[in-house]
Write a structure and sequence with these properties.
alpha/beta; Nucleoside Triphosphate Pyrophosphohydrolase; five-stranded mixed β-sheet; three-stranded antiparallel β-sheet; 2 helices; NUDIX_hydrolase_CS; hydrolase activity
Length: 139
């Protein structure tokens, strides 16, 4: 089982922050697995910092996925439990390269990079639903 969190940052121009992962070179939102004793919110803050250099100072959960399965390159299938957070404010300078990423940047929603994580569109749809209804998206 994989339990983790994702941080979604849109800047004041409504551009989405994406990192280019060092392991597969796909563009993705900052995300990762929880560490022992950590809350999902703390996980989102830590993963965002580790992958971007930015420290989330205000965030809101907007979706909770518990029915996702993933099969890794070794053929092992895991159930994923993941909470997505909208990060409203942050401090720090964006690092384009970290231990987990080879590039990072803000992209207009209508011009996202080509080789990207499949979950980006679903996450953005969840955020849009949350912003319209005020209800946490559960899947």
């Amino acid at each position: 089982m994989f339990v983790g969190a994702r941080g979604v940052i849109l800047d004041d121009q409504n551009r989405l922050l994406l990192i280019q992962r060092s392991d597969n070179l796909h563009w993705a939102m900052p995300a990762g697995a929880m560490e022992l004793g950590e809350t999902m919110e703390q996980c989102a803050i830590r993963e965002t910092f580790e992958e971007t250099g930015l420290t989330a100072t205000s965030l809101t959960p907007f979706s909770f996925h518990s029915a996702i399965t993933f099969t890794n390159g070794y053929g092992h299938t895991y159930q994923q439990i993941l909470m997505s957070f909208r990060i409203h404010t942050w401090t720090g300078e964006l690092l384009r390269q970290t231990d987990e990423s080879v590039d990072a940047g803000f992209f207009p929603l209508d011009a996202l990079p080509g080789r990207r994580s499949m979950i980006i569109e679903e996450t953005l749809a969840d955020l849009e639903s949350f912003e319209k209804t005020g209800r946490l998206v559960l899947k």
